[in-house]
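Quick note —
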Amino acid sequence: MRRQSVILWLILFILPVSCSLSNERNKTSGEEDKLQYNPRLNEVEVITLKREDFPLQLISNGKVQAVAKAGLSFRIDGPIASIRVRNGQVITKGTILATLDRPDLKMALDAAEIACRRAELNLFDNLVGQGYPARDTSSVPANILEDAKILSGYSSAQNVLDRARLDWESIQLKAPFRGRIAEMNASIGENLGSNYFCSLLDDSSFDVVFSVMETENAFLKEGLPVEIIPYAIDSWSCRGVISGINPLVDKNGQIQIRAHIKGDSRLLDGMNVRVQVERSLPGQFVVPRSAVVIRDNMDVLFTYTDDGIAHWTYVEIVASNNTSHAVRANTNRGSVLREGERVIISGNLNLADGSETTLRE
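Predicted structure written out below.
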C-alpha cells in the first residue's frame, strides 16, 4: 500500500514538469518560425544616372583579302628550266621567278635581227636612189620615208623582230609588283601550258570584306574605324577604316562592306576574322545591361530612393553593346528619367514596384 502511494506521488510530480518543458519547447519553436518567415530586405547595388557618350558596336564576320593579287603564268609554252623563288618568299617588282627552256626562240630572234638589218640596207639604197643622203633619214619627208620602209620590207622585218624579242623575253616570268609568293607547285622540267605558275599577293595592305543587314547600313559610313580580330589569333587585333560600301542589297538582305587595314605578317589572304565597328552616340543615359529587367513584357529600370524603396520605370533601349544599354524613358507609359537618379544594377531580378531594399555593403 505504501509502495503504491509513492508511485502515485511521483506521477503527480513529474506530470507538471513535463508539461512545463513541452510548453517551453513549443514557445521556442514558434519564435524560430517567426524568425524564419520574417521577410528579408533585398540587397541591391546602384549607380548614379548621368548622360555620356555611348559606344555603339556592330559585330560581323569577315574575310581578309590581299589588295593586289595575281595569278602568274607564262605567256608561251615550254619546259621549265629554272625556278628562283619559293612559297612565302617576299619579292620585289621585276624579280625573275622562273625561266623556260626555249633555245628555238633565241634562234628566231637572231634570224629576225639579221632580216631586219638586210631590210634596213634596202631602205637606205631606196632613199639614195631618190637623191637623199646615205644612212641619214632626218631630211626625208615623213610620207616618202614611210613608203620607202614598206617597199624595202623594213616595216615588215621590224615587226617580226619585235615579235621575236617579245617571245624571247617571255621565257622569263617576272613579278609585276612587290608581293609574297603563294600556291607555287611547279617543278623543273614541267610544261605548264596555260596553267598558273604561282600566285603573287601584295601583303603590304589588306582589305577585309564583311556583310551587314540592310537595317544596319545607316550605322556605317566611310572612314569609320574598325577592329579586326582573327579567329586563329583571338589574343591579337589590328585596326583599320571602312573604305567602301556596296550600294546594293543582296538576296539575303545584306550589304557588303570593305575595310582597309595595314599589312602584318600575322595576316593571311583568306583568313577568317571578326569585325567590330564602333561609333559613339552622344548624350545618352548609359546603364549596365544587368540594370534592365522585364516586367509586364516590357523593359524597366528600378530606381532607388533615400527611404530604400525601389520604383520601376518603363524604358526603351536606344542601343546596346556587349556591356551596356543606352536607354530613354518610355513616354508612352508616362515614365520619366532624370539625371542624378540612382538606378539599381544588381539584386533587381525579384523586385516589384515598391519593394523595400537596402544597399549592399
